[in-house]
Specification:
Order of helices and strands: HHHHHHHHHHHHHH
Structural class: mainly alpha
Length: 303
């Protein structure tokens, strides 16, 4: 049961973690472009290296014991790892067939699937502010995706791959929201990453991608992606999902394409159009409404 003291302590920290995670994940597209390797391979090493780096700090057995060890505790991060691998494989590949902006935006249309699942499957009551904010997000997404050609939208192969990845991203968030009630964030992230690593390796072997022979610059990018986007990004998101519902975390993660577009200005020398800038502002407004709706719902629960 929510209390005023719990809300006062948990919400600021949870939103801070959510912000850090969102910023860290916004660098993902940059690393994939800089790696000069197949998207699936970049995803594999991002997961594999992060799993190795976290292992010495994990205290895995202690974390599972503290969380009442059972197969159901391990099942959630294992399943979410499968969804993460599918999401990475589709989205990373899409970046080589469409623009960074399009891939980032279409790959983050997860609030639609998360919101509908929370409402239909889990009977979560979502107020009008949530749906208005969600509509604003999608209006902003349309404007950003149009890139100045609002009347002539086109979905190419890369766009379809990115859109498909959003379904697995939504499944990942929903499963993590359930699993984080049983495991601490670091333990969950490690098991999830180990599961995703295995599945990414299977995908790479099936597609016959090389696992070695890359230049030093590529290995540096692999390590940076593992530390920034995987360890920092997903640990922060995992923590926030232990305190906030997926229907709030998922829409907030739509700030990723906005931040990606902003980061692309100095890092990739890509300037957004006026329509894309307007779309970014609308997305920001939608995220604010959704989070404001949640804070009102949390406050009413103790009222």
């Amino acid at each position: 049961m929510w209390t005023r003291s719990k809300i006062a302590v948990h919400l600021p920290v949870s939103y801070f973690a959510l912000g850090v995670g969102t910023l860290a994940l916004s660098f993902a597209a940059m690393y994939i472009r800089w790696a000069q390797a197949p998207g699936v391979i970049t995803g594999f090493y991002r997961l594999f290296l992060s799993t190795l780096i976290l292992l010495p700090f994990l205290g895995l057995r202690r974390g599972i014991t503290r969380s009442r060890a059972s197969w159901s505790n391990v099942l959630a991060p294992t399943l979410s790892g499968m969804c993460m691998a599918a999401n990475f494989a589709l989205w990373n590949t899409s970046l080589f067939h469409t623009t960074v902006a399009n891939a980032s935006i279409l790959g983050n249309i997860t609030p639609l699937w998360v919101g509908l699942a929370a409402w239909w499957l889990f009977h979560e009551h979502l107020k009008g502010g949530f749906w208005i904010g969600l509509l604003m997000i999608f209006l902003g997404v349309i404007l950003i995706t149009s890139g100045g050609s609002f009347l002539h939208p086109r979905l190419g192969t890369g766009d379809i791959l990115a859109l498909s990845s959003s379904i697995f991203s939504a499944a990942y968030l929903l499963i993590m929201g359930w699993g984080r009630q049983r495991l601490d964030s670091l333990t969950y992230v490690w098991i999830n990453g180990a599961s995703a690593t295995i599945w990414m390796l299977v995908i790479a072997l099936v597609l016959k991608y090389p696992l070695a022979g890359f230049p030093p610059q590529t290995w540096i990018v692999f390590i940076a992606a593992a530390i920034v986007t995987q360890i920092i990004g997903y640990t922060a998101i995992s923590y926030s999902l232990g305190k906030l519902p997926a229907s709030v975390v998922s829409p907030t993660l739509n700030l990723q394409p906005v931040l990606t577009i902003l980061l692309a200005i100095p890092l990739l020398k890509e300037l957004p159009s006026a329509i894309q800038t307007l779309g970014c502002l609308i997305v920001l407004g939608g995220v604010y409404l959704i989070n404001h709706s949640y804070r009102q719902r949390a406050a009413s629960a103790i009222g």
